[in-house]
Structures are given as structure tokens and as C-alpha cells.
């Protein structure tokens, strides 16, 4: 079976929009979450936020055990964060690219599960990174906004190579990065 959803890619406006609070957990929401999990497993990915499938709701699904432990958080909030941790972070919406990004090492996140129960999770390292990454999606933030200047230059070089290879999506991706890539021939390095 193919995945129910196509993952929205860099340049899609929905990825820059702030998602809305979920007010009611009903049958439609349960189906959405099932479909999000199928889509995530199909990639495969460790996590997936609703805006990545074009749905502006504050929901993400995740599974740190590769198919063994499907979970969802509804209306999540990061209550506390602490420490610093570097991780080579990628994103299904920025396909094929990843960067070493520094973020807090630990977070305390709260939210609701599929039954509407309040949950509170203390997370460390990869789990904490996943929560921060998916929370960003709910706030319209992509990982490229966490890049330092050197990483942005690196990203620009890779995007230019993609342009040379004839990838027509590169122009839109470049403008998302704020790197002014009007077209493949109009690149100017800083
Ligand atoms: Zn992502």
C-alpha cells in the first residue's frame, strides 16, 4: 500500500505557517493520525508533523523504535529545556540534506494523547531533538533556520549543484533559505 500522503517539500507555503490548536479528538482526527503514521513509516522517518502533510493542526506522530512504538502528541508544548547537544539533523521536507545543529539536550514536553489524556515526557538526546524538530514544524519553522553562516554557504553550494543537475525545485528551495536564488544562473556567493 502506498502512503496516504505526499510529504510537502521545502518551498511549500504550508511549512511556514503556524498550525492551529486541536479542539476536539474525533474520528476524523484518529484517521488523520493513522494516515500520518502510515506516511511516516513509508518514508521511513522517526517523526512527522501534520503541516508536513498539508494539515495545519498541532499534531505530530513519532516512533523511536522503528515500527514498534507508534505515538502521537496533540497540542504539544515544550515547558522546559536544558543543556546543549549537537546532532546531524535532517528533515523529510528538506530531502537529502542534513546539518550538525546545536539545540538543547533535554526537554520537558506536555500534550495530549489520542484518548485526550494529558501526558508529560522528559526527553533526552534523540527523543528531545525529535520533539524540538516537530514542534518547530507546528510553528512554521524549518531546520534551515537553525543553520549558521558556514552551513548556509554549504547549503547554497549543494543547491547549486542540484540546479546544475537540472533539479527545477531548487529555485524555490533557495528562496526558502533566504539565499536569493532567483534561478540556476543567477547565483551569487557572498
Ligand atoms: Zn522535519
Keywords:
26% strand, 2 domains, binds zinc ion, 4 helices, 7 strands, 5-stranded antiparallel sheet, two-stranded antiparallel sheet, alpha+beta, 190 residues, Peptide Deformylase
Please characterize this protein's 3D structure:
It is a single chain. This protein has 190 residues and is of the alpha+beta class. It has four helices and seven strands. The protein folds into two domains: 134 residues, Peptide Deformylase, CATH 3.90.45; 33 residues, no CATH class. Strands 1-2-3-6-7 form a five-stranded antiparallel β-sheet. Zinc ion binds next to helix 2. The site of zinc ion has 5 residues, from helix 2.
Find the count of extended strands (DSSP E, 2+ residues). Answer: 7
Proportion of β residues? 25-35%
Bound ligands:
zinc ion
Q: Could you name the ranges where pLDDT drops below 50 across 5 or more consecutive residues? A: 170-190
- Strand pairing plus helix content: what structural class? alpha+beta
Estimate the helix proportion, in percent. Answer: 25-40%
Count of spatially separate domains: 2
Q: Average pLDDT, to the nearest integer?
A: 84
What's the N-to-C terminus distance? 46 Å
C-alpha-based Rg, rounded: 17 Å
Assigned CATH architecture of the largest domain: Alpha-Beta Complex
* Annotation field: number of helices: 4
Strand line-up in the sheet with most strands:
1-2-3-6-7
CATH class of the largest domain: Alpha Beta
- H-E order: HEEEEEEEHHH
